[in-house]
Amino acid sequence: MAEGQELEVPSQQQQQLHLLSAFLSMEPPTSLISLARVCGGGSITDTVQSFIWHHFFTNSDEKYHAPYLRSFLKKLIVEVESTGDVVLDELYEKYTSYMTSLKEYDLANGKSRVLKWVSFLFVDGSTEIPTCPNSRKLVIPLQCSLNMLEGDTGCSLWPSSLFLSEFILSCPELFSSKSCFEVGSGVGLVGICLAHVKASKVILSDGDLSTLANMKVNLELNQLSSTTDLIERTTQDLNSVECIYLPWESAQESELKDFMPDIVLGADVIYDPSYLPHLIRVLAILLNREKSYSHDHNMKTKKRPVAYIASVVRSIDTFNCFLTLADEANLIVTDITNDFKPFDLLPYMLSYQRSNIRLLTISYNFR
Q: In this structure, are residues 365 and 307 in contact, taking their beta carbons and an 8 Å threshold?
């Protein structure tokens, strides 16, 4: 685990990797400026500007979100000029071209979805993890929404899904060869990480059809196929993930009991008090195997299912409501935030505040 790992000053190569990774994941331009300063030892030098030009813009900027590039360039130019340094001519010219070519783009409001690349960086201390790639970097492309606050929340990248993904990649032994079911899967990041650590079965669910369609796009971007069939992932079909439409309020008990997962997961699902009773009911059904355990000898020796829920507590009243409903449904909720510290695999994401996230385990209380 990462609890005892020491903080080290990144090398120049690591600093540049952090800057590039932040750019690919579309971190806020202010975060890019901060990382660019680090690369230059306190200021954005000619060398840093040249790195930005060659890696962000040369022959590759067409696949990135142009308004985002324009916003970053504007802040970059202001930052360099404020320190009395000289901006590279190429960056000036590129910014000028954006100012003229993007006027029509702005009038049309642009695209509603963008492609982000989330890079999990396995640094010293985390490279002994069995599922660490040889490159020490796992890059996951994701089609995400630009309109987080305009009704497209299911296609946005939320901090708790980043945390849960770090947790999965840091502790693959908890999920490898296990049947895993995620509620409210959103863009599908958690499921992609589960597939990477070789879960025996990965079932992703969401109650919004548009979100589900976007999730399937992201699976394809990561060389994973989606299916609606209940299958066990074997060595021949490890790239298959099941996706199901599951509105919590109308989920049938008979349907849920067919899944019988070993592990249930959820990221940022404790947000709306009106949905909490339905969420609790779904969790209770998935975690309660009382009848199966009482009639099946093999089930008695099998470890009982558990849920891992990562959540930002935005409203203490909503969170307390969740705890109350869980207790009434015979669910045991335990806060393990301080017991399980995942590796910091996203050191470049300055906007990602993992200290705000709680990690909970939930199990059924067989009285």
A: no
